[in-house]
């Protein structure tokens, strides 16, 4: 079993056990399970922060490779759907199809699976999702969405320090990463990943130690979900 398979199976087991407990107690899953999405520029320390935040919250961090493994495995996707409460299972397919109406997003199978997987995770909660446009898929009313940025010079310094590449190699990696990520978001969502309006919190790490942000971020996550709970109750 690969490390990716181990991560996926561990998280699936957590969701399955929670579903079993909910069924035994004859209760619905929590109305607002918590999912955090982290978008970041390469070299901005966003990945490191996502790891630390997941650890502090007791969540599982899911990187691009893990998400891709789930999206490409019908077995994994089936287990996720089976972990959902019956009510949400019924609306999931309709929700995904509605997102693909018209020309707003790419209609490929992978992206349909990606949308369904991320929406399912938002219902199950307990994960920090790194990249893959999670904030655009979920929208402002599902999850807490963060973006990390930094000046180009700082990003180059970070890549040199932590990956051992040369300055020219670091600059090339950053240029390629920025272009690919911007293209993906424009293709899927007709949006700009640098538009701050798509996030609850945008952090410039030029002069910020991201470890100092952990407690503040947890408080902001709590505050947002409290407000969402009130909003949902008021509209029900």
Whole-number average pLDDT? 85
Overall body shape = globular
**What is the element string, with H for helices and E for strands?**
HEHEHHHHEHEHHEH
Q: What proportion strand? A: 5-15%
Strand runs, count? 5
Specify Rg, calculated over alpha carbons.
18 Å
**Total helical elements:** 10
- Helix fraction? 55-70%
**Could you describe the largest sheet, including whether it forms a barrel?**
5 strands, parallel
* Structural domain count: 1
Instruction: Please report the first level of CATH classification, the CATH class.
Output: Alpha Beta
**Structural class label:** alpha/beta
Tell me the distance between the termini. Answer: 45 Å
CATH topology heading: Rossmann fold
Low-confidence stretches: none
Description:
The chain has 236 residues and is of the alpha/beta class. The protein is built from ten helices and five strands; from the N terminus they run αβαβααααβαβααβα. The protein has a five-stranded parallel sheet with strand order 2-3-1-4-5. α3 packs across α6 and α4 packs parallel to α6. The protein is globular.
């Amino acid at each position: 079993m690969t490390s990716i398979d181990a991560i996926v199976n561990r998280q699936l087991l957590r969701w399955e056990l929670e579903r079993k407990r909910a069924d035994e107690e004859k209760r619905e899953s929590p109305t607002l399970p918590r999912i955090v999405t982290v978008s970041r520029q390469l070299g901005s320390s966003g990945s490191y922060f996502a790891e630390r935040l997941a650890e502090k919250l007791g969540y599982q961090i899911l990187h691009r490779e893990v998400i891709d493994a789930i999206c490409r495995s019908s077995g994994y996707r089936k287990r996720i759907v089976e972990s959902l409460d019956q009510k949400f299972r019924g609306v999931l397919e309709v929700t995904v199809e509605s997102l693909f109406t018209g020309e707003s997003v790419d209609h490929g199978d992978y992206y349909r699976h990606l949308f369904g997987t991320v929406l399912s995770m938002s219902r199950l909660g307990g994960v920090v999702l790194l990249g893959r446009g999670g904030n655009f898929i979920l929208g402002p009313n599902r999850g807490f969405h963060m973006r990390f940025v930094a000046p180009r010079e700082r990003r180059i310094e970070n890549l040199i320090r932590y990956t051992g590449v040369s300055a020219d190699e670091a600059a090339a990696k950053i240029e390629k990463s920025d272009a690919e990520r911007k293209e993906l978001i424009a293709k899927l969502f007709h949006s700009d990943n640098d538009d701050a309006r798509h996030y609850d919190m945008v952090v410039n790490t030029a002069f910020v130690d991201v470890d100092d942000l952990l407690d503040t971020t947890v408080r902001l996550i709590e505050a947002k979900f409290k407000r969402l709970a009130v909003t949902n109750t008021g509209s029900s």
